[in-house]
Amino acid sequence: MANPLSANDPKLTSWVTVPTGSDFPIQNIPFGVGNTAGTKSRAFTRIGDTAIDLRVLWKVGLIPEVDGQENASYMGRMNCVLRCGRPFVRALRQRLSELLRNEAAPEVREQVAKAFVPVAELIMDLPVDVGDYTDFYSSREHATNVGKMFRDPANALLPNWLHLPVGYHGRASSIVPSGVPVRRPNGQFKPDPNAPPVFGPTRQLDFELEVAFITCPGNALGERIPVERAEEHIFGLVLFNDWSARDIQAWEYVPLGPFLGKNFGSSMSPWVVTLDALEPFRVAGPEQDPEPLPYLRTIGPHSFDIALEVALTPEEGPETTICRSNFKHMYWSMAQQLAHHTVNGCNVRCGDVMASGTISGPEPGSYGSMLELSWRGTKPLTLADGSERKFIADGDTVIMRGHAERNGVRIGFGEVRAQVLPAT
Fold first, then answer.
1. Which listed residue (142, 302, 329, 403) is catalytic?
2. CATH class for domain 4-124?
3. Which stretches in the chain have pLDDT values below 50?
């Protein structure tokens, strides 16, 4: 079999038209789930503005059958594909690359073209059935900023933060695909620290700029995933907006952590970009001092140079970019997160989602939340239409985008967007 990473060759070109600057050249080959009007959801890949129905390719024998799933191959969400493991996904991506290259024979092109669907006609769904969802807190800059605001500025990081990837278990049922609106949540909060709590719609609705990874087959209960093998259990990455109600969160999080301030909604981008597609953009993460305990120590680079941005669009106004950051700022890598998650024997399953936590960089313009950008509401942002924001208003749409680029090849995620609806 050809080297699977040959699909990353920057010299590759496709017989399918790819617009200049597209996030989805032939070197990407992402995976997603969608449907057209009146049809059932099924698996797709994408090149440029063209989606390719994998079930159509499977029916004519152009791609491998999902092991043991003959009657359901490439139907529904991607979990049945993930159960075959990362080697299967790697081989599938390689085969799709071969079908889409300029070198593909005319008769192959003709068969593949029968699977084409314009992306604009697809209604995208979540790529996987999410069994469990964990949110980490792995940006040192973000954790430091929050510590300065809410605790001692001289000792912003809690004592454990530099020793382990802090995380909490989130709510899988409220993860929604890009484009689905998010409703402003109600809850308890304390506008006056010297008065009793009140109930009502959050006054401090916020976004969190995150990247999440989705797991392939994990580990049996009672076993663990070693850090050196952790990436073999990762299917790929998506953009992730973990919506937050800061005032509700601030009142409730002591002593057990986030609850109603977090579980009302998280938005996920529809196209999963594989780790193999991101391999050319692998970089070293920040230096870790003190050295982690042995089960968290890694050799070589385990981060990725992925440029990220957040834009905000008022209901009747133009879009304003309010944040530019990068995934490479993450202090704890995905491999370390997964190794720590399972070191106690916790079992991870296909389709589990592990989010990075807010990704903030070193400069104010790279902060990944309104909490930081407006510094807890003390420094309002001015948008392109002249309006100001301390936090997110009803009718606002938050859009996150991300891509990696090198040697003339751009591998992107598209976007994740959601509009905020008023509380009920």
1. 142
2. mainly beta
3. 1
